[in-house]
Design brief:
By secondary structure, the chain is of the alpha/beta class. The protein has one domain: 3-Layer(aba) Sandwich (Rossmann fold), CATH 3.40.50. Helix content is 38%, strand content 21%. It contains ten helices and ten strands. It has helices at residues 3-10, 41-46, 57-77, 84-92, 111-126, 144-152, 166-179, 218-227, 248-259, 266-275; strands spanning 28-30, 98-102, 105-109, 134-138, 158-163, 183-187, 204-209, 230-237, 279-290, 297-304. The chain has a ten-stranded mixed β-sheet, with helices on both faces. Helix 3 runs parallel beside helix 7 (166-179). It is globular. The structure holds S-adenosylmethionine. The site of S-adenosylmethionine has 18 residues, from helix 3.
């Protein structure tokens, strides 16, 4: 581990911190020109053949259920240790450096350290909410983020990892059992919001991390969440409309987003529901963090009215 990584890992979130990134010591600064050394995407976008990675249901299930989460599940099952630490070691172990960004500045570090920084972001934002009974992640993947929160914070008594894929839910169940965490994994398909658990606790906070980008009808889905006892909805999602096409990085982000067929409908849905008086919203950090500098996520908070 480099000294910069030790610095990253030694930082802790202080509850008194204001809306800044001061709780994070990032890795080593790089500039836009250096990105191709750490990501295949600039070269891929610049040699664009016009192909699009369509996000059909079959394609989503191939990528996550059959490949990413299932491969991880096989590896975790064959491991003598099935802790959260082991899950994260399997997910983020790589000695190579990756590029990431914080508030538009580019850095490089190992995947493990970048994941650590991202968890700080999540924790920092979710700590703003009080008087919460339940926290539910929408599209929780392997469940590593929600299990980190459940293990390290007292923010809620009940934790629900909603996820489309069987393999993702199986990973969450396996690790939550080992760690004795109060996290349950439930099936959810954004395209069929009836699959939300019918009797959600009062004062539930829903959050999503790079998942509603896969939702085909965010307006209908957000309405369902509001009907499912949402006290607040916190989105950590890439927002197409926040990419600035007067900058090179903004143009690259738009191009990446289009090529990957993510949903552009999330922000217009938020605006429409706000105009109808159904919710209020605040964009807390536009393009605040990026595991992939070509696709920064923004943090948006929504409150049902
Ligand atoms: C990029 S991963 C993010 C996982 C996790 N939230 C994180 O940040 O590490 C996107 C997740 O959304 C899930 N997903 C995609 N489409 C979905 C749908 N229609 N309903 C529910 N989950 C879905 C995928 O299975 C995948 O686990």
């Amino acid at each position: 581990m480099t000294s910069a990584e030790k610095l990253v890992l030694s930082t802790t979130v202080s509850e008194s911190e204001q809306d800044s990134n001061s709780f994070i010591s990032p890795g080593i600064r790089i500039d836009l020109d250096e990105l191709p050394r750490y990501s295949i995407w600039p070269a891929r976008l610049l040699s664009d053949t016009g192909s699009v990675y369509e996000k059909t249901k079959a394609e989503i299930l191939r990528e996550f259920d059959q490949e990413k989460w299932n491969e991880l599940l096989i590896r975790l099952r064959s491991s003598p240790v099935r802790t959260l630490e082991q899950l994260e070691a399997l997910m983020f172990f790589a000695s190579s450096q990756m590029a990431y960004s914080i508030a538009g500045e580019y850095y490089r570090s190992t995947p493990f350290a970048v994941n650590h920084i991202y968890k700080r972001f999540l924790e920092h934002e979710l700590r703003r909410a009080d008087d919460v009974t339940c926290i539910a992640e929408l599209g929780a993947g392997a469940g590593n983020l929600i299990m980190h929160l459940a293990k390290n914070t007292q923010l809620a008594k009940t934790w629900i990892a909603y996820e489309l894929t069987e393999s993702g839910r199986a990973l969450t169940r396996m690790v939550a059992t080992t760690e004795d965490l109060p996290v349950v994994a439930e099936f959810l398909d954004f395209d069929d919001p009836k699959t939300l658990v019918p009797s959600m606790p009062e004062r539930t906070i829903y959050y999503s991390s790079f998942a509603l980008a896969y939702c085909k009808d965010p307006e209908g889905f957000l309405e369902s969440l509001i009907g499912a006892k949402a006290k607040e909805i916190v989105l950590f999602e890439p927002i197409y409309q926040f990419f600035d096409e007067t900058t090179l990085s903004g143009l690259l982000a738009k191009s990446y987003f289009e090529k990957n067929d993510y949903s552009k409908a999330l922000f217009p849905a938020i605006q429409k529901l706000a105009a109808q008086g159904i919710l209020e919203w605040d964009a807390v950090k536009k393009n605040g963090f990026a595991h992939n500098p070509l696709c920064p996520i923004s943090i948006i908070r929504l409150w049902p009215k």
